[in-house]
Amino acid sequence: MKFKINYIFDLSAIISGLILLSLAILTFCDVFGRRFLNSPVTGTIELVEFGMALVAFLAMPRAFFLNANVSADFIKNISNNAFQIFINIFRFILMIVIMSMMAYATTKEAMAFFKNERVTIDLEIYFYPFYYAASVGMWLSVVAIVFWLISALRSENS
User: What pTM, to 2 d.p., does this model score?
Assistant: First the structure.
């Protein structure tokens, strides 16, 4: 089970990296076209805005699962096992509440954009696929937080 979950989080991070690489290529083509061909790529700003959000939200599940988030470990050296369990549960509650609310709100917003069929200004592409992809990344983060807590509690008990 752990292998399959780890594979899903790794796949999400790989997709995030591929999106980032695509955005870098798109930005290079836009700058090159603007500078040397006097013809920028239409819609670059819109695609980069949506793409960067997708990069962040699709990379988060792996960071949560591996506990690779940037944090200050000023209370890490306390050897009290019960206190470490308390800290992990407290972190879990904070992370799960915040990510669950964000995922719920983004999913709700994606459904609203799906109903009203809003499109971007330049390319006239629908908003809702980007919101659905971001909400999938956020829901994966919620699952990753749960699996992080399970592995953290197992390591504290052993």
Answer: 0.85
3-state class (DSSP) for residue 119: strand
pLDDT per position as a tens digit, 59-79:
999 998 888 776 656 666 666
User: Residue 113: CB partners within 8 Å, gap ≥ 6?
Assistant: 126, 127, 128, 131
The letter for the amino acid at 129 is P
Does residue 23 contact residue 51 with C-beta atoms inside 8 Å?
Answer: yes
Residue type, 44: T
In terms of DSSP H, where are the helices of 37-80? 44-65
CB 96 within 8 A of CB 132: no
CA distance 4 to 48: 31
